[in-house]
Amino acid sequence: MMKRLIFIIPLMAALLIGCEGWDDEKSLPPGRGRPGEVLLVIDSLKWHNRIGSELRITFNETVEGLPRDQSMFELRHVAPFDFKSILLHARNLVLLIPLYDQTSQDLRMRNFFNKISIDSMEANPGLFIVTKKNLFATDQQVMFLIGHSPDDFVDKIIRNRDVIRKFFNDVEEMRAARNLYAIKEEKIIGSHLKKEYNFDMRVPYSFKIAQNSEKFVWLRLPDQKIDKNIVIIYKDYLDIKEFELENLLRWRNQVFREQIFGDPENPESYVKTETIIPPVSRQVTFNGKYSVQIKGLWKTNNISMGGPFISYAFVDQVLNRLYYIEGFIYSPSEDQRELIRETDVILKTFRTSDMKEN
Fold first, then answer.
1. How far is CA 177 from the centre of its chain?
2. Computed from CA positions of residues 154, 158, 160, 166, in that sequence, does the dihedral angle turn out positive or negative?
3. How far apart are CA 230 and CA 346, in angstroms?
4. The pTM is what?
5. Which of 296, 316, 203 has its CA nearest to residue 256?
6. Residues 6+ away with beta carbon under 8 Å from 269
7. HEC readout, the chain
8. pLDDT tens digits, 55-76
9. The dihedral formed by the CA atoms of 294, 280, 342 and 217, expressed in degrees to the nearest 10
10. pLDDT at 12
């Protein structure tokens, strides 16, 4: 039997928060926090028992395809009575609302809602996730997790890990997209891609075409610390076997060996897939299409360069093209979780003639 997930409910009039002035967003301070940072408001007892353990598992999941272990989010916790002042302005907030205890800390958490709302929650044992934008600050996302007992909390957290992760990952991707395209886009390059190759992509400012030929485009943004790269390749689609990981990587390595140089001064240098830590793949929906996502590591064949990549393979049924689009980065001294997240955001702007808008 499939496990039933509890979907996110945006805060509506039916759930009134007992916090005066919270709808006056014009007077709110700006949200604070690093990308990927989540502040969890939870009392010490719950933080140190299984509720806290399951929340740590949820947010501290290791990101696949990075050369160094990094968690999906940076989780910080604070006790309810310490949740005040500047902490109220955290951009990503998770507040636990226990409906079963009468401790001063639990009562403080329930005070975020009025009595009518609490009564409604108590009468609805299936309710778990309620969200609200800009509660204490602008550019803020708040998630309330509602539990009717300790076991109820644990069970709901386990069954809704992916829902919780996706909510905050989508929030971070939205912010990353806003920052990437805040200044301007390389619309001339975008128009060239549309005219020459019949696909669309939003190209962030300062990216350049490093190399292009028939059925191949390499976009690049190098600087002193970080080298960002987007590669688009395609070929005629034959059959479903082309989506197998082995076949996609074989195609990738063949094209990259011919087109992506490791050292501009050495034509024998090239980029290939790192196999010591094997890439991982999964079937996903990419802009409305069936797709295979790959996360892994790349390296050069003759010098010590490498880093993470993320890619998608899918078919344009109108043009009968199998596309492979990839973003890879070189940033040996930088944390790479957010760089890969940004790269993923760029890839997701890719559109073929038969793709649905998000």
1. 11
2. positive
3. 8
4. 0.89
5. 296
6. 261, 262, 263, 300, 301, 302, 303
7. CCCCCCCCEECCCCCCECCCCCCCHHHCCECECCCCEEEEECCHHHHHCHHHHHHHHHHCCECCCCCCCCECCEEEEECHHHCCHHHHHECEEEEEEECCCCCHHHHHHHCCECHHHHHHHHCCCCCCEEEEECCCCECCEEEEEEECCHHHHHHHHHHCHHHHHHHHHHHHHHHHHHHHCCCCECHHHHHHHHHHHCCECCCECCCEEEEEECCEEEEEEECCCCEEEEEEEEEECCCHHHHCHHHHHHHHHHHHHHHCCCECCECCCCEEECCCCCCEEEEEEECCEEEEEEEEEEEECCCCCEEEEEEEEEEECCCCEEEEEEEEEECCCCCCHHHHHHHHHHHCCCECCCCCCC
8. 999 999 999 999 999 999 999 9
9. -30
10. 47
Mind listing the pLDDT tens digit for each residue in 199-244?
Answer: 999 999 999 999 999 999 999 998 878 999 999 999 999 999 999 9
One-letter amino acid of 124: N
CA–CA distance from 44 to each of 3, 52, 191, 207, 307 (Å)? Answer: 30, 9, 55, 47, 39
What is the C-alpha to C-alpha distance for residues 29 and 87, in angstroms, rounded to an integer? 12
| Distance in angstroms (rounded) separating the CA atoms of residues 353 and 159 | 37
Q: With CA atoms as reference, report the closest residue to 202 among 352, 356, 316, 346.
A: 346
Q: How many residues does the chain have?
A: 358
